Amino acid sequence: MEIPANLEKEVIQLFSDMDRAYLQVAEQTGFECRGCDDNCCRTRFYHHTLIELLYMRSALAALPPDLQGRIKDQAHAACRQMAAMERRGDLIRVMCPLNEQGRCVLYAHRPMICRLHGIPHGLRRPDGRTLAGPGCDNYYAQCENSDRFRLDRTPSYTVMADLECRLRGQLGFNQKIKLTVAQMIVEDSVKV
Fold first, then answer.
1. Between the CA atoms of 73, 12, 28 and 146, what dihedral angle is there, to the nearest 10 degrees?
2. Rounded Cα gap, residues 37 and 59, in angstroms
3. Are the C-beta atoms of 160 and 51 separated by less than 8 Å?
């Protein structure tokens, strides 16, 4: 299953808008996301949208077969590592299987959190309250007056929610999704 062409253009535009909003705040604050000890590619993020799943899987399918195989092997290993760490009660810090030599193999198709993580952010709720989230440690180490600039995630989340509803409606899909990137690559639990 693929994202219908009419929605794929909107997804591409949304991700471009996210990148632009992130870069604008990064430039305003002087933040550069680069080689820190707390690499977000080692952070266990969960992804909840069918859009991100299908968008990433379509890009993965377009890679050369040998690279696809290597990424799938790395994803299986990452899933095993995360499960073992979770059983032991360890902090789960496993490199994303899409990271090759410090770079994301599917950078243009990376999920939303990979585009927005690191900069302090806000989200306006429908009831008018604003939820605030912190930036990463590297952000605070680099940026003075760091709370002055916040990335407003509301526009991105609003568009993402609209696209997700439309996509699910078109595909008749109603499953919940809560997967890491590694799980998105290897698990068949989400039938699309």
1. -50
2. 28
3. yes
Nearest to 156 by CA among 164, 145, 148, 168: 164
34: phi > 0 → left, psi -120 to 50 → alpha, else beta; which?
beta
The pLDDT tens digits for 12-71 are 999 999 999 999 999 988 899 876 766 788 888 999 999 999 999 999 999 999 999 999
φ and ψ at residue 122, rounded to 5 degrees = -135, 155
DSSP secondary structure string for all residues of 101-149: TTEETTGGG--HHHHHTTS-EEEE-TTS-EEEE---HHHHHH-TTGGG-
- Domain ranges for the chain: 5-186
- Residues 115-170: pLDDT tens digits? 999 999 999 999 999 999 888 888 888 887 666 668 999 999 999 999 999 999 99
Query: The whole model's pTM is what?
Result: 0.89
Q: Give the C-alpha separation, 91 to 100, whole Å.
A: 23
181 close to 98: Cβ distance less than 8 angstroms? yes
